[in-house]
Write a structure and sequence with these properties.
0% helix; four-stranded antiparallel sheet; mainly beta
């Protein structure tokens, strides 16, 4: 599972801890929204049952999204994000996704690495529904590094950032 630690006042006070149970949960990335930053949004990797991990790619998984409205005691939403699952990709690697700072009820993150497309996932309803925009299409769908024979190919390096402007337009670098 994932251990999540927090404290009510930034920089002071006792730390509290909760546990999100599960197997194969890795690399959590958190952002908060709401009037008092009391809505917690969490992205993490989860390896599916029977997922073939390799020595060169031991931390590959699918991106899951969770949302808590009560200080991470419970998770209102906790699911694989549609459009980023095993029907589209063989998995993502650690560090292959990052959040934009939320604006009002708009959330956005960008995901991609050398194995996958580079995609923007955006929600205008606080994380209930997600819209996928492919920014860069990987030249070899369902790319598996050890089953591909080529001397050269181009791909996304995995370093990216995203920001929402005042009109809720996502800008990606």
């Amino acid at each position: 599972g994932l251990y999540i630690n927090w404290r009510n006042n930034k920089g002071s006070g006792n730390w509290q801890q909760s546990l999100m149970t599960g197997v194969g949960l890795k690399h959590p990335v958190v952002v908060t929204s709401g009037a008092d930053n009391d809505v917690v949004h969490l992205l993490y990797l989860k390896a599916e049952a029977g997922f073939n991990l390799t020595e060169a790619q031991p931390y590959r998984g699918f991106i899951w999204y969770a949302k808590s409205l009560d200080g991470m005691q419970t998770w209102e939403t906790n699911q694989e994000i549609s459009g980023l699952g095993p029907d589209e990709y063989l998995g993502f690697t650690i560090g292959a996704y990052t959040w934009a700072n939320p604006k009002n009820n708009v959330l956005a993150f960008v995901a991609g690495d050398y194995l996958t497309d580079l995609v923007l996932m955006k929600s205008t309803d606080g994380g209930d529904m997600w819209q996928k925009t492919v920014i860069w299409k990987h030249p070899y769908p369902m790319f598996e590094i050890f089953s591909f024979n080529s001397d050269t190919f181009y791909c996304n390096g995995g370093g990216m950032s995203v920001a929402l402007d005042n009109d809720d337009i996502a800008h990606i670098a």
